[in-house]
Amino acid sequence: MTINVKAEAVDWVRRAEDLGPQIAARAADADAADAFVADNLALLKAEGFHAAAVPAELGGGGASHAELSAVLRTLARHCGSTALAFAMHTHAAALPAWRWRRTPEAVEGLLRRIVAEKLTLVSSGGSDWLDGSCRAVPADGGFRVNGRKVFASGCQQGDLLVTMAVQDGPEGPTVLHMAIPMKAEGVEVLDTWRTLGMRGTGSHDLELTDVFVPEAAVTVRRPAGKWHPLMHMVTLIAFPLIYSAYVGLAEAARDKAVELTLARSRGRAPVDTVAALGEAETHLAAARLALADMVACAATDEPGPAATNRIMTGRVLAARSAIATVERALAAAGGAGFYRANGLERIWRDVQAARYHPLQEPTQARLAGRLALGLDID
């Protein structure tokens, strides 16, 4: 009982802010060297953040979804890669925490393991989505899985891969949701992460070669390419957290632009600079509003097509506005923003990754249009 009271009293946002300077100190070097932000994630784990999403009743941090969003925004203001890599673990833990309030028997074991074993979860959702990827072939007691996963953020430090594989059958392909230990035989991390931005997330490819997955590790079966209730749950919980990192980047860009402008103008900023900062402020307000609506949706709506549409609309608006904020902040900073040492250049590169998570803009537009017309979203 004492543990629960202490966990509920934790100010996770304040703690993230307190760790910010240590996290920021490593960010530029990690980016320059394409190095995984392992030390930053280890620091967060040592401070208990890996279990922040786990209900206090199970020994976790008991952080609400809104608190987790605020933590990720705070981390992103210090290091985008740390925030995004941590978001991938956080949303994978927050989803079973959300489900625990409704169907505890299905997820309690995993949540207790996150606390007791200090597990880091690795997600491959961005490379799978509705269709899934990799092949699952029945074997004695389970399946053999083969194929490649991309965008496996944090995989170098991960313990459990929360992923999918596709089993062919007479009624069409079935996507199997499963958990695979990262140390299982046949799981290999490929050194593939050489990117424009978010270089420190360590989002390498994973090669799965004849990986044995026992039947008990398969948690859900669903038809490939169709909206299953689980995918609506993933959308509801995951995307407000992922896009919190990008809104945090936009906030950092705005602050840096103001700082650089004040340093060089001494209160007499050119009209064009003032206008660019004003545009950045406006775009940032839009990003914050979009994110706030996503978080509110997760708190009040039930998973389903309407909530998914609301979340994915917010995802596109938050991405557009975060990117626009950083672009106008860079314009306001002038030549100073072009120098790596000032940090805006890295933020500009990192925020571009907001374009690539599902649902990307054309797919989101088709979803919104079909719902508006009353058509089947499958």
Q: Can you walk through the features of this model?
A:
- A hairpin with a 2-residue loop joins strand 2 and strand 3.
- The strands form two sheets. The chain has a four-stranded mixed sheet. The chain has a four-stranded antiparallel sheet with strand order 2-3-7-6.
- It has 378 residues and is an alpha+beta fold.
- The chain contains twelve helices and eight strands.
- It is globular.
- It folds into three domains: 2-119, Butyryl-Coa Dehydrogenase, subunit A, domain 1 (Orthogonal Bundle); 125-223, Butyryl-CoA Dehydrogenase, subunit A, domain 2, CATH 2.40.110; 229-372, Butyryl-CoA Dehydrogenase, subunit A, domain 3.
- The longest helix has 37 residues, at 229-265.
- Helix 2 packs antiparallel against helix 3 (38-46), helix 4 packs antiparallel against helix 5 (80-100) and helix 8 packs parallel to helix 10.
Topology:
Layout lengths: L1 H8 L2 H21 L5 H9 L18 H12 L3 H21 L3 H13 L4 E3 L1 H4 L6 E5 L2 E11 L7 E8 L6 E8 L5 E4 L13 E11 L3 E6 L5 H37 L5 H30 L4 H29 L10 H8 L9 H12 L6
Parallel strand pairs: 1-4
Antiparallel strand pairs: 2-3, 3-7, 4-5, 5-8, 6-7
Helix pairs in contact: 2-3, 2-4, 4-5, 4-8, 5-6, 5-8, 8-9, 8-10, 8-11, 9-10, 10-11, 10-12
